[in-house]
Amino acid sequence: MSEARIWHGGDLDEARRLFPDAPEPWIDLSTGINPIAYPMPPLPASLFERLPSPAAHRDLEAAAAEAYGAADSAMVLGAPGTQVLISLLPALWPRSRVAILGPTYAEHAHAWRGAGHAVAEVGTVDEADEADILVVVNPNNPDGRTLRREALLEQAERLRRRGGRLVVDEAFADFDDKETLVPVLPDNAIVLRSFGKTYGLAGVRLGFAVTATGFAGTLRKALGPWSVSGPALEVGRRALRDRTWRESAWEARAEDARRLDVLLAPLSDRATGGTILYRLMESGRTPELFSHLGRHGIWVRRFQSDPRLLRFGLPGSAEAWRRLETALADFLKA
To answer: In this predicted model, what pLDDT tens digit does every residue of 268-317 receive, in sequence order?
Structure first.
């Protein structure tokens, strides 16, 4: 029997299949990607014509170390997206007991199970006392739950005493980094950071692992040479060093998130959760709302695990906000 497909955001082919009569263009609110992308710099043709140099890789990783607060750029490894790292990590350990703090991003459990590990979803980190590896998404996707840095450090120390490892996926931490583990990273911890979500450039396919230099070397060998394309290296290093843009985007998206909360409040059965880049609502009318929005050409994220939940990304234009506001108002009137 084939394994059930994991639903992800961004699949407009599925949106058009389900709602063939919906108006175009579709408004895709199904992802947690910044809708106002970092302005792409002009790229010389040479970046496409030759293999990336080791020096370019090192410069990108130095830029990421500065942006994330790593003590040493040798601890930072660039990769073609964090999803590649999520899939790769389980292959680097013998079969282990893996605890995943959930519910959360489903690809973590999928990857560890696929590599033959014994995987258990736990509701609190205290339930992971028998695990060899603990995986935490912080802030969590989709509900935005955030663990304090001190709690993560405590778990890392518990794992150390039994030879275990802590994996922290900080894909959504760039705009809410108070609890990031990177500046005080224990040597038995691995932090994953996403580039495309914050900078609105998911198609660049760029992500990072931050870990002790020895294990960073193991990851480099596993990925092999030229793991990040020349264009991605150039875009990534420029964007990561542009602190002014990042701080401005942080403020603007936080304001957008507050605006979206106001729109969703009359539809939600409880307070909205999520992160700055997306909001999560829970309602007994979620299936009806999903279909209503789909017929209006607005694609949002539903969940296999809980049909009462819907996740809304941030609209990226005045027209997108207008269409969403109109559709939600029409639903409330029905």
So the answer is: 998 779 999 999 999 999 999 999 999 999 999 999 778 999 999 999 99
CA separation for the pair 36, 205 (Å, rounded): 17
- In sequence order, the 6+-apart residues with CB closer than 8 A to the CB of 170 are 138, 139, 177, 180, 181, 182, 191, 192, 193, 194
| Measured distance between the N- and C-terminal CA atoms of the chain, rounded to whole angstroms | 42
> What is the reported pLDDT for 2?
41
Is this prediction's pTM over 0.70? yes
The domains found in the chain, sorted by start residue, are 12-37+244-333 (3.90.1150.10), 46-241 (3.40.640.10)
For the chain, helix (H) and strand (E) counts, in that order, are 12, 13
pLDDT digits (tens, 9 = 90+) for 91-143: 999 999 999 999 999 999 999 999 999 999 999 999 999 999 999 999 999 99
* pLDDT score of 55 more than 90: yes
- Token digits for 84? 């590649």
Query: What span, in angstroms and rounded, lies between the C-alpha atoms of 57 and 72?
Result: 15
Name residue 156's amino acid.
A
pLDDT at 8 over 90: no
Which DSSP symbol is given to 180?
-
User: Residue 315 in 3-state DSSP?
Assistant: coil
Map tokens 């998130």 to a residue.
Answer: 257
Sequence letter at residue 179: E
Give SS3 for 226. Answer: coil
Q: Are strands 309-313 and 278-282 parallel, antiparallel or unpaired?
A: antiparallel
Burial of 92 (0-12, 13-18, 19+ CB in 10 A): middle
**Whole-angstrom Cα distance, residue 46 to residue 266?**
53
